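Take the subject:
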Amino acid sequence: MKKWIVCTALVFGMSFTSQAQKAKKKEDVNAIKAMCGCYSIKFKYTETFAPEIDYEKHLDYTAAALEWAELIVDEKDKLSIQHLLVVNDSMVIKHWRQDWEYENEKVFYYDKDNNWVFKPLSKAEVAGQWTQKVYQVDDSPRYSGSATWIHADGKQYWENKTHSPLPRREYTKRKDYNVMLRGNRHEITPYGWLHEQDNDKILRANAAKDELIAQEKGYNIYTKVPDEQCKRAKDWWQENQQFWSKVRLAWDKIYEREGDLTLKRAVDKKPLFMHFYELEKQDAPLTEIVSVIEKFVINTSENVQGK
């Protein structure tokens, strides 16, 4: 009798845990999908601290934009959101992309000098977590990190710290640091969502300890507006999504790796995103897109080339 009671309790406990995990994952998915739609965005950054007394604080950065966030992948363990900027109500610019993968065991970490380290994680490390993988305008890597979505006390947020290249607002202006340690917090709010940042600006060199140059606070405030305001971006994506799906497939061949990935900053004096302008106009085939990307890859391993 006791044995039967114990077995029944174990089965009930396992069933309850499974249901709780499914409910939690559903909350996570809903939070991620809440970042989709049309948003009026305000970007605000200010440097808050520097260890050296003679450091000259850089000017605050503020900007505003209208952005459409389209859910382009909706699978059991993966969601992908493509962001599109609407400029002056007339021009659409393909912006960043964020992929969310549940209990993902493959991440990439930025080192320095346009080099990313692809690293496996254990099942125990990522249990219940979501990896956010952020990609640049040409779908090349930017940064990624794994953490747990929190739903408590009326708040929904995800927090992670990870290294990344310099932000677009500074990468052509600053030479005093070469790596950003990003403290990312994505919080769903009544007005939309907030990307809050606590960032360290780091100078990293071979065989040397990281040097903190400055710290900054950042707020990207996404305020939901009617989807009709982003109609131009929605239409643009309908016209161009086929090409960019091929670009993602091309990058997948590069991302199927462990170890390092180093990319050239330019080929024929042009960065990668500029090469895509002509490819996009032609709706170039997958083979041509792969060929262009591989010109930028410095250390493509033999096992990737053979795929």
User: Anything to note?
Assistant: Residues 140 and 251 are 7 Å apart (CA to CA). The mean pLDDT is 92.
